[in-house]
Amino acid sequence: MSRIFQKITFLGCLFATISLGGCTQDKNGDRLIFSIEDDIKLGAQVSHEVDSTYLAKGQLLDPTNPKNKVAYDHLNRIVNKILNSGRVSYRTEFTWDTKIIKDDNVLNAFATPGGHIYVYSGLIKYLDNEDQFAGVLGHEIAHADQRHSTKQLQRQYGLTLLLSVALGDNPGTLTQIATSLTTLKFDRDAEREADDYSVVYLSGTNYYACNGAAGFFEKIIKENQQGRTPEFLSTHPDPGNRVEAINKKATSEGCRTQFSGATTYQDFKNSLN
């Protein structure tokens, strides 16, 4: 957490202690007025709005549609390995549903508060193997699990306005938040922490290379050098430094860095054609 945000949080909690009776510490050690229950309510509202937006565009792959079963079977198998790593703080509290947005031109993924994860088909098809994809998923899961999404939205919109959205009292702002999630920019501390937790989560799977996210960023660097700039860089900057930091974290954790050798990722990609 950045020093500025720590000061804001401290002052907010001090105010809450005086006027509202308290500010609770969450499982990550953060003291926030915005509760886990508020995260869940806000996430449900935002997720419903995101679903509606992409359904209207014909881009949201319906998980209940039999023709999408193969794709979601692949996706849920990978997600569940990460969620069941024993390292996700809010494994049982958050919803942790994952949706695929069909747009092969977008290399991106994002998370809402409360554990709703969205992945573009373009990102899935862009990656070379399951370990890279698991690394990116771990990063996005960390944004929700470490409550980065909530903290960033609270900075942008303010506590009162965000609470009104969570309660369903502000549809205009809800639409604005849902639209902005694809371009939501986290500070360097949050990005670094999400990278670290991606390593931690994958380490707990005892299956994936814990530095899988580094392989993704290495691919992005290569693409960028060839004059192609993936959209992911607009919200996840400095890939070079992050490769080094992710590998350093993997070394400090002492976790496996050999690829899992999973052989079904191409089948996953093919299921989206």
From TrEMBL:
Say yes or no: keyword Metal-binding present.
Answer: yes
Q: Which is a Gene Ontology cellular component entry for this protein? A: membrane
> Which PROSITE patterns does the entry link to?
PROKAR_LIPOPROTEIN
Report the GO molecular function annotations.
Answer: metal ion binding; metalloendopeptidase activity
Q: Which GO terms describe its biological process?
A: proteolysis involved in protein catabolic process
Keyword annotations from UniProtKB, A to Z: Hydrolase, Metal-binding, Metalloprotease, Protease, Zinc
Annotated Peptidase M48 domain residues: 74-248
| Textual note on the cofactor | Binds 1 zinc ion per subunit.
Q: Which cofactor does it need?
A: Zn(2+)
InterPro entries (UniProt xref): Mito/Outer_Membr_Metalloprot, Peptidase_M48
What protein family is recorded? Belongs to the peptidase M48 family.
Q: Which PANTHER family match?
A: METALLOENDOPEPTIDASE OMA1 (PTHR22726), METALLOENDOPEPTIDASE OMA1, MITOCHONDRIAL (PTHR22726:SF1)
Provide the protein name: Peptidase M48
